[in-house]
Design goal:
Length: 190
Amino acid sequence: MFQVEMSAAVRSATGKGPMRQLRIEGKTPAVVYGGGGEALNLQFDTKTLYAKLLQFSRRNTVVMLKIGDEAERSVFIGEIQTDPVTDKLIHVDFCEIDLDKNRAYSVPVVYNGTAKGVDLGGDMIINQRKVVLEGKPLDIPDECVVDVTSLGMGESVKCGEIAIPEKVKMVTDKDILAVSIVKPGQKVAA
């Protein structure tokens, strides 16, 4: 799983007026939920936060938050709010997580290479672009890679055949076809 470190400062002000002033000063308000305590109000430098968010948008990411003198907190991004007209950051919600607890995550599947069957005129049909894996957050891979170069005409790979780390369990049905090579115009049985 992708990891990134970010620094934040605690904020005491709340409400529409103080948040507007905070944004004028180049800061973005944020909140950390979870961890068994009250929500923690934070503020980030907007340019730095935006640059970090672009690095890992739409990826499973554990963010290690450094908040002043406090111990680091492990969080996921819950919600990113942007202005509908200007697309500027308005607010970010973070959810604290336990790195020692198993959870299910949707992980993208990447298909590498050109299949032998495609070179012979076949079509590659991709049925699964994501699979669900269960495990501790730091054990989950960024993506699952499937090498399709050895697949001939009429051959396929099922989800259960996708290589995953030992400490991780496949939640997606293992009998579902992930990718198959078929003759042009042939229908694929799922």
